[in-house]
């Protein structure tokens, strides 16, 4: 599948959003490097605007719109991070943002959308967590009523190109990396990063990391075709979505491997980062850290960049302790 996604498109996105988003730090951790016997760097997208890497794609999409499109606003579907990022980008251009969100979204993420002026429409679902089809049906209904321009949270070339700018910054600072690790849900971040890495640093292995209890990307990668996400039960709420056709094609072409990690490892990794790096990350960000701690990826003697994708957590319900672990699907 020829997606049209190129390094040039990512560089255009970088120019478009320069000054609108943060160039986040690439931190080296001596403690975690010693623990893993590798040289470990953390790309701190938890310090990005809206607290998440998704600001990159959202700002690129919003600032790509024509004047006529701007007048009608934008619409997306999201459990929280894309919602906040798009609401912020829309606010910066003075336009309306309509957000299809699930009722189970974290209170902190709902608050962020409201703080940025986003208009929330709740997704009605037959299950505890909406399916991709239910999200998209709600977004399509909003679009039909308002004429708003759709900005898909991951399966959109503008979104993917924006997320790829993260890798431009990483490689600019550390051009000789052996491995880049990124979480994967819908696949926008992993797809964008993989395009940039293949073009600028082909020796670098790009590895996607996913919860065992929401492992559609792993199964899709193994099968060579999209396997839908049916019953995600992970604490990593940002990684419960299925891959899109654009993101899957790019991941299949450019990613070296996808690994999965346990729920216990996600929580342990999240707490370790809080304690050692002294930065706040959400469970989805902890997934690639967990892959290293569980030795799903061998990093000994290697230079490794781990993307900490976001830092939006519910501070009233911190997930420490076994009570926070989701029960196995029945």
Structure description:
The chain has helices at 7-17, 30-36, 54-62, 67-72, 81-93, 107-115, 132-146, 157-173, 188-200, 216-223, 245-254, 263-277, 283-293; strands at residues 26-28, 39-44, 74-77, 97-102, 119-123, 149-150, 179-183, 205-211, 257-261, 303-308. Residues 322-330 have low confidence and may be disordered. The relative contact order is 0.16. The chain is α/β, with parallel strands linked by helices. Helix 5 (81-93) runs parallel beside helix 6 (107-115), helix 9 runs parallel beside helix 11 (245-254) and helix 12 (263-277) crosses helix 13 (283-293). It folds into two domains: 7-52 and 157-324, Rossmann fold (3-Layer(aba) Sandwich); 55-150, Rossmann fold (3-Layer(aba) Sandwich), CATH 3.40.50.1100.
Helical content, roughly? Answer: 40-55%
Report the β-strand fraction as a percent range: 5-15%
Report the CATH topology name of the largest domain.
Rossmann fold
* SSE arrangement, N to C: HEHEHHEHEHEHEHEHEHHEHHE
**Name of the top-level CATH class of the largest domain:** Alpha Beta
The SS-based structural class is alpha/beta
Q: Strand tally, please? A: 10
Low-confidence segments, given as residue ranges, are: 322-330
Q: Please give the oligomerization state of what you see.
A: single chain
Give the distance, in angstroms, between the N- and C-terminal Cα atoms: 36 Å
| Average of pLDDT | 93
CATH architecture tag of the largest domain: 3-Layer(aba) Sandwich
Quick one: biggest sheet?
6 strands, mixed
Estimate the global geometry from the Cα principal axes: globular
Number of domains: 2
Rg is: 18 Å
| Alpha plus pi helix count | 13
């Amino acid at each position: 599948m020829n997606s049209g996604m190129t390094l040039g498109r990512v560089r255009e996105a970088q120019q478009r959003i320069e000054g609108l988003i943060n160039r986040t730090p690439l931190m080296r951790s001596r403690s975690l490097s010693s623990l893993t016997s590798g040289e470990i760097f953390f790309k701190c997208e938890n310090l990005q605007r809206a607290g998440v890497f998704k600001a990159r794609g959202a700002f690129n999409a919003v600032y790509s719109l024509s004047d006529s499109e701007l007048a009608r606003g934008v619409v997306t579907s999201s459990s929280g991070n894309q919602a906040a990022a798009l609401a912020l980008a829309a606010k910066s251009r003075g336009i309306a943002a309509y957000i299809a969100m699930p009722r189970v979204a974290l209170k902190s993420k709902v608050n962020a959308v409201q703080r940025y002026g986003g208009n929330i429409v709740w997704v009605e679902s037959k299950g505890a967590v909406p399916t991709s089809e239910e999200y998209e049906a709600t977004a399509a209904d909003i679009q039909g009523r308002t004429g708003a321009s759709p900005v898909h949270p991951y399966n959109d070339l503008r979104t993917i190109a924006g997320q790829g700018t993260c890798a431009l910054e990483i490689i600019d600072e550390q051009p000789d990396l052996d491995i880049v690790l990124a979480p994967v849900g819908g696949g926008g971040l992993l797809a964008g990063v993989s395009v940039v890495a293949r073009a600028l640093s082909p020796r670098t292995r790009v590895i996607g990391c996913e919860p065992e209890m929401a492992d559609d990307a792993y199964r899709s990668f193994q099968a060579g075709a999209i396997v839908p996400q049916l019953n995600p039960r992970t604490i990593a709420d940002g990684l419960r979505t299925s891959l899109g056709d654009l993101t899957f094609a790019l991941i299949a072409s450019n990613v070296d491997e996808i690994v999965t990690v346990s729920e216990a490892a996600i929580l342990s990794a999240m707490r370790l980062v809080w304690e050692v790096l002294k930065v706040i990350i959400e469970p989805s960000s902890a997934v690639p850290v967990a892959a290293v701690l569980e030795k799903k990826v061998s990093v000994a003697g290697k230079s490794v960049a781990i993307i900490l994708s976001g830092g939006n957590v519910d501070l009233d319900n911190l997930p420490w302790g076994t009570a926070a672990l989701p029960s196995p699907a029945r």
